[in-house]
Amino acid sequence: MTASPHSTGTTPGSPTDWKPRLEHIVSTMQELSSQTDPQEMVRAYGQRMHTLMPADRMVAMSRRDLKSPMVRVTRYSGWEEEIDPWREPGKLPVLYDGLFAQLIYANQPQIIHDLALEEKDPARKFIDGMRSVLAIPLFDKGEALNMVLLGRSEPNAFKESELPEWVWLSNLFGRATQTLVIKREMQEMYAEIDRELDRVAKIQQALLPEKIPSIPTMQIAAYYQTSTRAGGDYYDFLELPDGRWGILIADVSGHGTPAAVVMSITHGMVHTYNGPTDKPSQLLTYLNDKLYQRYTTNIGGFVTAFYGIYDPATHSLEYSSAGHNPPRIKRCTDGSIISLDEAQALPLGIADGVDYINAEHTLVPGDQVVLYTDGITEAMDPQGHMFGTERLDMGLANCMLTADGLIETVIGGVNDFTANHPADDDRTLLVAKIS
Questions:
Q1: Is residue 143 a contact partner of residue 106, using CB atoms and an 8 Å limit?
Q2: Superfamily of segment(s) 196-434
Q3: Which three-class secondary structure state does DSSP give residue 406?
Q4: CB of 256 within 8 A of CB of 424?
Q5: 33-56: per-residue pLDDT in tens?
Q6: What is the CATH number of domain 4-184?
Q7: Residues 327-361: pLDDT tens digits?
Q8: pTM for the structure as a whole
Q9: Do 197 and 229 touch, CB atoms closer than 8 A?
């Protein structure tokens, strides 16, 4: 075997043939740039290049993830079945030592003008009968991890003057192909993540109340929208002794799956709580202690929550708040706005042993009560202004609307204000009308 190292010969082609070559190369680049699948791109490139550099045999090989002197044959013009080396590497033959290993581990382009293979060389089954061989390394991180071999049956078939152009062109194509491979892998990963997020969202939705309960003297409607597939907002209704009802709304810090996980944990703790139910602060204290001791301190998160206990018999609403937005009351008898802000304390999960307090407010027939998360009031218009509580109050102005009608009015106002921009934060809204 005689080998000639690459030279710095002149660019192939004479002054009379550069225009047809340029046209061919331009059309080739146009075709390749439209490809989205690496297999199709390799196929198109091979067909195009065969017209520029005719060969009787083509072999592609790789030493990626292999140790010297092992080499994997990834493509061969003599195969009837085309194998995708990125998806089916197990179907590809691995050779040990021989000509292919010598060429690819040399890290250099080479031309063999008159090949004479040893009888036992594993490369014989791929290039037997080839007298001329052109070996083009494809570099990755400075190493020839891949290589393309072109073979011709006659000796001295390849010109050294053309070698620089072929090394350059082939490596540019190799990088483009690798980019497509990475793109395909990322698309597949994103698709799998999307499926996972869809499952998380469905699980989270299943944790919310399946239907709004029928509470005497109180008509309730709810709206829930996450900013991503899954979110950290949470609301619930708890049936308590003596005909009372617990109404809970909470907002986990952050967005997406991490917030949804904490939301699920909070839901589980609410529904396994078997302590006293006389005061709203008792549930918040329990949630705070559990979140702080086992969950939020490790992730730097917290949960804001408002929990009220409504007694239909007396219309009294006793409540406690863990850093949550104070609910608003539109008193339709006199048009006043009341803020339930007299029982504020730290959000859940920030500190141990927080003293949550209670406050009480008596509702009257006609009152319109709105509980919400900050995704409502902090929604922004295109100029960066927040929706705010004043616009929220305006949504409650019509005392003739049902609870569902009030939800539609407020959410319609938010969408108009934001020019229908997708929610940047989870949005939850509970509206209760006292009858």
A1: no
A2: PPM-type phosphatase domain (3.60.40.10)
A3: helix
A4: no
A5: 777 777 777 777 776 676 667 889
A6: 3.30.450.40
A7: 999 999 999 999 999 999 999 999 999 999 999 99
A8: 0.68
A9: yes
